[in-house]
Queue: 4 jobs
Job 1
Amino acid sequence: MSTLAHTMMTAARSADSGLAGPGELDRYPYTEAPAADRLGVSAWDAADPELGRVGRRAAGSRGRGLHGQLVQQLGQMIVSGDLGADRPLVPEEIGQRFEVSRTVVRESLRVLEAKGLVSARPNVGTRVRPVSDWNLLDPDIIEWRAFGPQRDDQRRELSELRWTIEPLAARLAAGHGRDDVQQRLSDMVEIMGHAMGQGDGLTFSRADAEFHSLLIQVAGNRMLEHLSGIVSSALQVSGGPVTGCERPNEASLVQHGRIVDALATGDGTAAEAAVRQLLTIHPEVERVVPAPREH
């Protein structure tokens, strides 16, 4: 096993046990107060008592500390519909409900405003915005939708988006031969093979996400490169909260290898075809995309 493979597998095992791996984002699942301690504020009566557990199943907030916890909790409540469109969000009530300071509430609402989930206006206050205003390409919103009531729609839409983005990226990447990226892609396939042999789904999924992110980044199109985070989010949610992303299987591993081989020879047509074939391996994708084209 290569040093890189050993490092990724060790980091994945550490994360799975709850320990932070090297360079990993901190994750702070929010623990709700016991029911007896909750304030009887009407604005929160509709909150789903399972939200705390849902948050822990998701990949976690990209913020840190209390601020990150509150962003995740409020974001999930909005995306799930527990805090519906045009619902007023009163900072004082939020602070009391979650036992955090006004500063934490204020900064959290600013993050949610940047994501299009809420709006703040003078003399009106902060209110929840309708779905049409949300930044649906934001990785956090993708995550929250994927583990909420909209999970089926989210996964279908992500599958369709991947079908649009990745074959094109593979075709373009074949014309941008870079030895360093080529080696990194080969390394990811090696890691996926080792992980599959050991039944390590977490490491497999991390190497898989890295592979697809690299594929898009090497396409040489900066606008496509900005979509690499969306593909990573799609992989994180496509297989459910346990496996993280693609289910390890031999067919998937073979197709990843074919993509690498096509890129190595500069064959854009073969690279595109291999990606299309890979995207039809999983049943949830087969329902929403046509069969691969013959070239």
Job 2
Amino acid sequence: MSAATTRSRTPDRLCAEAVGLARTAAEEAAAPGVVGEHVDVVAEGDRVVTHLFECKEFGYRGWRWAVTVARASRAKVVTLDETVLLPGPDALLAPEWVPWSERLRPGDMGPGDLLPTDAEDLRLEPGYSGEDVPPPNSAVSEEMAELAEAEDAELTAGPPAELPVAPERGSIASVAEELGMRRARVLSRYGLHVAADRWDEAYGAKTQMAQAAPATCVSCGFLVPIGGSLGQAFGVCGNEFSPADGRVVSLSYGCGGHSEAAVMPKPPRPAPPVIDETRVDPFPLRPAADSGSVPSAPDGTEDLGHS
């Protein structure tokens, strides 16, 4: 071990004796009465020492005020370096920070809360932006644009070309808005699959309610169909007495509130066997004389035809 390493692990005498300077600095950074007893002295390097004081602040159990002092070479004056609050070995620490996007759970949002969506969210994909050139056979082709201009000319003060602002009626964006297509982003295929898996897990065929149901939702009169590709496998329950009322349910889901549950015939079940243990059934040890198909010989005197 070198001499420099030995000196760095041994606290400097003048710096180690500057407890009063360190306490004054800690009280200025905190408040009087918050800085507790002097705990330890740690050598940080040559003529660099850190004084540790107990922290009495509520909520900071086990924390310590760390005041670092230093002394220049061949100088006898100790100067202040920094004052910080550091956790000790048994300090009460907050749990590891987790981003809000990972802490959020279904049902956490309340009135007035805003949930920003990531621009790169895999559940969404760009919708109709209006920047693409429509195909010739679309509803907003050149012929339709000319017709829209003629209609706008009848409703405006002059020709559209002479107006300071182009009329919105008949434009690609306005037509898309009328058709319900004016959305910046729509569900992607991945988003559809994620939603379908989530709905099927909550109200699908594998739930206990569906396993005990008399029939599935596909034959229930309370099922409200939905549009789109998800309508082939899901619907909305409209039975107020059902546990899935107002929820998106799988067509293979079911409950006791099925519309035809009262008129559905129950499957036939065989009656359980009844055994009378008080009655004795006699069983002969030998067959009866008239039980065979050949009449018996009288007294055994008739020739049987063999030797």
Job 3
Amino acid sequence: MPNTAPGVPDGQSGVQYRYHRELFPALHDWERTERSIVEFTGEEGPAGLLGLDQMGHFGPQGCDLVADSVAALLAEASPGGAALPPVDLCELGSGFGGALRYLVDRLAARPVTVRRAHGVDLVAEHCAVSRRIRRAQGRAGMTEICASAAAVPLPDAALDVVVVTGSMPHFPDPGAVLREAGRLLRPGGLLVLTEEVSLTPGTPGPSAAFRVTHPREVFFTTPLAARLRQLDDAGFTALVRRDLTDWAMALLAERLKVVRIFRGSVAGIYGAASADRIRDTLTAAREEYLAGRLLPTLFTARRG
């Protein structure tokens, strides 16, 4: 049913907005939330602030996997260990921008210079929050693009790297998104994506219990065989799939332990209802990994 509340978008943009607004209402008051996070973690700057929109699923550890993969693949393509040239990078489904800002900083330490970084998200409110944080941090060379990940207003072959850090389940037509990634990349350009709760071994897919915290209209899943076809149809080659099941189960177990031990602090930052939803969301995902109904995965590929 369309949402008719003033200022709330309809369609998939509205669906994603309402879900994330309910899960993380504190993100829309990020200045207050930032102070709470700094008080809790003792860490200022982008690394500490990643928690603003990365409490779910893989979080900063998943971003580290992406950064490591990008740096390694760029170095592999650099003849004789020559200095790596600056790259133009885009994240599809960038949300509030925490993962993109974190990724740019992690790449700089590897060392990979990101000349231009674009964060693409369908929800205007997410882009607005990301823009406020970026400006407050004084970042140059980074832009928010409010658009569908399947129709990005950038020219063909404009990018060296496209990443997706966990947003694959939020794309109703992931094949179209992957084709768009192929269009955006220069020949030989890199695609690196994490599949957190988006990839299944086949039918019937995730359990009914999983859908309580991951509703169908917000989280879309794809069988592995179909994802491989989508990547091939989009023109990607040198495809490598890394199974993250053991890693992801251990990560979520540790994150759940932190959420339970420090529930009061987490509730103080995000609100009590959000703290409980974070716990339930992580628990449901881990159960699907354990049962083999979801396949946590890191994909890397090159544009042919």
Job 4
Amino acid sequence: MTLTKDPEVTPKARVVTPKARVAERPAATGLAWLYFSPTMLSITVWVYGPLLFTAVLSFLDWNLVSPDIAFNGLKNYETLITEPEFGNAAWNTLKYALFVLPFATVVPCALAIALWKRPGRMSEFYRMLLFLPVVLAPVANALSWQFILDPLYGTLNQVLGFAGVEPINWLGDPATALPTVVVVTAPKVVALNTLLFGAALANLDRRTIDAARLDDATEGEITRSIILPQLRRPIILLGLLSMVVVWPWLFTNIGVLTRGGPSNATDNVYYRLYTYGFTFFDAGTASAAAIVIALAFGLLLTVHTLLSRRFRATR
């Protein structure tokens, strides 16, 4: 007896021809753009829109109040080039970046590794303590440091006085003002990046480290040969991101503690931009400074992307 399949019951496989695929693509693409449109709209309105407005404003002469607006051409950019204050602010910005970089990479990476190697409740407690500076109100934190660093009655000078150290004008001396502002800002940078390095370490395999310990490898060798090579990319990325995140914190501390002084020793391009816009009411020059800063960061991101691609290609 031969069994035959009923053609009406047997399911037919759906054959998708190339023409059918081409016909389905526009619908799928359109649906994808529909889901993506709120994000694109938000980015356009809140990022590219103000950036375009700032670029237009950088070619104008306007005091933010008067209805008289004049076309200024490239004079605002010429002002930035010829004005020594902006050159000094740019140089100070580079010094800020160099001073902040160890607090953004070396210190938090070492703390994160030390806490990761000893998991437990105490490790979580120390992470909580380290993260406290991030949640402190920036202005209140800066005011607290102002009392601590007071040259006559500050707590720091009083403590140093017991050791026979003469009082130091931490914020009034051009030689110490900029490093002091960096040290005041450092706890926030260290706290945030320690948390981020901890997240990167969570992806590492502890079994490799346990095997290295069974082979009598020292903790220094484990850190140097196993952990740090796997953290190379997070170190570079967090170092770059810190150069973006740290400036609002530095701006607050400069505005409260030094106001760019003494003798513009703690000035930087961000505080100089604020001075152009809201002290001199020169919207054109302030906008030109903002565009220069945006281009500088764009160049920095481009270099980082090219180096990352080259690093991946050589691996």
